[in-house]
Design a protein that fits this description.
181 residues; alpha+beta; SH3 type barrels; 3-stranded antiparallel sheet; two-stranded antiparallel ribbon; 4 helices
Length: 181
């Protein structure tokens, strides 16, 4: 198993894979990217998309300014990312900043108890959207749409065991925060 170490050298980001048991890997904290340049008086979120395009694919989630993620790759003006929850997608490279550590206290990973109800709602419903769920509420239909949906009942949506556990964890956090259902 290897741990990825991100370094900034001369303004460029360099990645170094170290064996997770090495002393350097244990001392270094994992560096994450995060949204930058968001308008706090506007939408104040970065759209996580299913494809590297603003017009094709669907919006999977809304990433707030304190969302941490790992860069997986780049394609043109788009960055393929992975959230701490394991969810992946594409964001505009224009709004990606680097580097924060999870322990810095300045950023909050998606799905943690400090996440907002809206972020949790978006993350939970993005899982269902990707699996073909047909949304019923106007809010969810507006956010995710129903194009290509196949399942009217959440119980019929073919989620993996990991996805079901992730949804259960998000719902538990929503209950703890008192989020509207």
């Amino acid at each position: 198993m290897y741990k990825l170490l991100c370094l900034i050298i001369g303004g460029a980001i360099a990645a170094l894979a170290l064996p997770s048991g090495s002393a350097l890997a244990q001392v270094q904290q994992e560096a994450f990217s995060y949204p930058v340049g968001l308008d706090p008086y506007g939408d104040n979120f970065l759209a996580l998309r299913s494809l590297p395009s603003g017009t094709q694919g669907v919006r999977l989630a809304r990433l707030g300014p304190d969302t941490l993620f790992t860069e997986l790759g780049r394609q043109g003006g788009w960055v393929n990312i992975q959230l701490p929850s394991g969810q992946t997608g594409w964001v505009s490279a224009r709004y990606v900043g680097c580097c924060r550590t999870a322990a810095s206290g300045r950023s909050v990973p998606s799905g943690s108890a400090s996440s907002s109800c809206e972020e949790l709602w978006s993350e939970r419903n993005a899982i269902f959207k990707a699996a073909g769920y047909c949304f019923r509420t106007p809010q969810a239909i507006q956010a995710f749409g129903n194009a290509g949906c196949q399942f009217d009942d959440e119980a019929d949506v073919p989620l993996s065991t990991r996805q079901r556990e992730q949804v259960a964890k998000i719902r538990a956090t929503e209950r703890q925060l008192g989020c509207a259902r």
